[in-house]
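Example A, followed by Example B.
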Amino acid sequence: MLFLVIYFLLFLVLIFQGTHVAAEVKTPLGTVPEEVAQNPVSSTRWGILLLVVGFFGSAMGLLGFRSSTLAAARPGFLILGLAVLALYGLWVIFLGRKAEFIGKPAADDHGHGHH
């Protein structure tokens, strides 16, 4: 029973996170500066991937109540979901946000830092 709770929670997290990542491109929340915003193309692709895996895993989990073959495949689907979530986490932490400072430097004070 605990396995099923963890299983379905994982795929719900994938669905909600995929929806957030894909929707952030069209309607950003504005919680981070533009310099560190996610790449729109990559965000959309990750969102779609997370949604597809989330819905696929949820559907296979629910169909597992009718088919013993699919019920036996649930641990494999769980590992797949965890792997996709881990790869997404690595992308967010290490590859997703790169600061691109495009502004002009502040005015030079010519060494007069205090008045």
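Example B, a separate protein, is given below in the same form.
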Amino acid sequence: MKIKNTLLYRKLFVLFLILFISFPIYAQTRRHQFTLFGGFNHVFEYGSEEDYILGENDFPVTPSHTPPVFGLSYSFFFFKNLGLELDFRYILNSKLTLRDPSDDDTIKIDSNKHYSFTGNLIFQLLSGKFRPYIIVGAGFDTLVNVEDQTLTSEYGFPVFLKAPEKTTDFVGNIGGGILYFFGSSFGTRIDSRYIFIPKTNEHPAISNFDVTMGIFFRF
């Protein structure tokens, strides 16, 4: 019994010694990352002229447009090169011209402002000053301040646009980028992502491509 206790004490001592030695190394590892960024969000054309319905869907195609985007993210690296990122993006509006395919009448509107929040896995491919990475994740996208609108078309006809009843959608994204360290705790980040919102009863599938640049801090 005494021998077993002695072996147990030795194992506990070795385990404590390993933890004692490795803790300073763990503590010095900068695992948290905070990023501020801005850029543009390119929305690809969506909808089809085949969806035209007189009096209900007179302007079925939304042309491509590129509003500004800005945001922030927080990442925690639970392994050396693998971490979890929480990303918030706010997308502003841009000018659009919608066309009625039956007579080529047009209206001019602003695209909807919206924001997205996603949770992503981030994997760094290298560990030096220059660190390319890949990222994949999902979350939700929400329209901001959507309201019914009554507009006048180019031909002088009144056009009523009803606000969507559902303003929040599932969103998925995949992409990559580059982290460049100016020092041990800060640097610049370039990021690009393909963002996809699936088709619903309210709208067709929507594809976006984000390109952003910002600064990050590690601590």
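On Example B: The first helix runs from residue 2 to 28.
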